[in-house]
């Protein structure tokens, strides 16, 4: 079997990119190699592996869960079934944070804290932290990262990425409901969390400090009734906890904004992603809950409203 024969079959399923990437993965090569070697005869063992994995791909199983890698904002993150696969549109959130930071006058000694709520693989918080160091010259010792998620399994993946990108010494990983594992929120809103992944003190140093605080979140935003725009493959293979949030998908954000109001902590910068048809609903939510904030919406690369920066 030649590469070209395999690609011809994949073309019929409209999955040529997936086939090239899968072949590259199995051959320990990149896609360009596959592209440039259509005449190459594939070893039988590799072809058998390909066939087995192709059955999964045909069932819309994400390729990234097979390769265990997903590129995000120019870096390769480890991913597996425990986390949502980082999406290209979420790169826009990182980009917007960087743009907003570009408008700030940052002292060399500025201490910055990046808090990623619903961190999943950690792709947003880690990318923001690395970009702050690489593009803004923020020193590592002046940077703190908090990655929090309600899913312990997701945090295990985040931890792999924290280690991978050398941020272990400045990152805390916290398990719990939205802001509650990282700061005091009204107990009437959120009960105290039980499990904490790392043996840090429960209440974090978010409070009473002069650090610049950047809060980023891409919380689940698919609704069970409204805004139910999820594809079947995504629903079937990616963690439900990462996708759904109440009837209209906005329950997690509603709760987060309540917590923010309650905590009385002022974040210097906040960035949130939402679904491409939720701008109006999200705007209403922000106006009610974060009325003192100035905010602006941004679009993704497809030109769809995708998030807000405040
Ligand atoms: C849409 S995924 C985003 C993951 C990652 N930030 C990204 O952009 O790829 C949402 C994440 O929020 C987490 N999550 C859901 N409900 C949560 C809650 N109440 N508190 C904290 N995290 C939550 C999920 O486990 C999931 O990892």
Keywords:
310 residues, seven-stranded mixed β-sheet, single chain, binds S-adenosylmethionine, two-stranded antiparallel ribbon, alpha/beta, 38% helix, Rossmann fold
Strand content: 5-15%
Question: How are the strands of the largest sheet arranged?
Answer: 5-4-3-6-7-9-8
Distance between the termini: 55 Å
What is the ordering of alpha helices and beta strands?
Answer: HHHHHEEHEHEHEEHHEHEE
CATH superfamily of the largest domain: Vaccinia Virus protein VP39
In total, the number of strands is 9
CATH architecture of the largest domain, please? 3-Layer(aba) Sandwich
Estimated radius of gyration: 21 Å
The gist of it:
The chain is an alpha/beta fold and 310 residues long.
Q: What do these coordinates show?
A:
This protein is an alpha/beta fold and 310 residues long. It folds into two domains: 3-57; 69-309, Vaccinia Virus protein VP39 (Rossmann fold). Helix content is 38%, strand content 15%. The chain has helices spanning 3-12, 16-26, 31-36, 44-58, 63-67, 88-102, 123-136, 152-164, 232-237, 251-263, 279-289, and strands at 69-72, 75-78, 112-117, 143-149, 171-175, 212-217, 269-273, 296-299, 305-309. Helix 1 (3-12) runs antiparallel to helix 2, helix 2 packs across helix 4 and helix 6 runs parallel beside helix 7 (123-136). It is globular. 38% of the residues are buried. The protein binds S-adenosylmethionine. Residues 83-84, 86, 90, 117-121, 123-124, 149-151, 154, 177-178, 218-220, 241-242, 252 line the site of S-adenosylmethionine.
């Amino acid at each position: 079997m030649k590469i070209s024969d395999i690609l011809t079959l994949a073309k019929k399923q409209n999955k040529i990119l997936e086939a090239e990437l899968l072949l590259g993965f199995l051959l320990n090569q990149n896609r360009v190699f596959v592209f440039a070697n259509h005449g190459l005869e594939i070893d039988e063992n590799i072809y058998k592996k390909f066939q087995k994995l192709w059955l999964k791909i045909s069932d819309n199983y994400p390729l990234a869960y097979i390769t265990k890698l997903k590129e995000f904002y120019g870096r390769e993150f480890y991913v597996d079934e425990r986390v949502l696969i980082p999406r290209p549109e979420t790169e826009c959130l990182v980009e917007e944070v960087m743009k907003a930071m570009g408008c700030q006058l940052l002292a060399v000694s500025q201490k910055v804290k990046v808090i990623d709520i619903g961190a999943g693989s950690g792709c947003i918080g880690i990318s923001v932290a690395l970009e702050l160091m690489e593009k803004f010259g923020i020193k590592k010792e002046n940077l703190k990262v908090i990655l929090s998620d309600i899913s312990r399994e997701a945090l295990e993946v985040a931890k792999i990425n924290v280690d991978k990108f050398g941020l272990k010494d400045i990152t805390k990983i916290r398990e719990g409901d939205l802001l509650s594992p990282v700061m005091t929120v009204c107990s009437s809103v959120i009960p105290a969390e039980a499990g904490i992944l790392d043996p840090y003190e429960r209440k974090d140093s978010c409070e009473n400090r002069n650090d610049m605080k950047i809060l980023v979140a891409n919380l689940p935003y698919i609704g069970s009734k409204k805004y139910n725009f999820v594809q079947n493959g995504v629903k079937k293979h990616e963690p439900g906890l990462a996708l759904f949030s109440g009837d209209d998908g906005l329950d997690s954000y509603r709760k987060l904004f309540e917590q923010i109001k309650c905590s009385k902590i002022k974040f210097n910068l906040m960035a949130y992603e939402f679904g491409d048809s939720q701008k109006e609903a999200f705007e209403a939510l922000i106006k009610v809950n974060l009325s003192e904030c100035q905010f602006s919406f941004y679009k993704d690369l497809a030109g769809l409203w995708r998030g807000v920066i405040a």
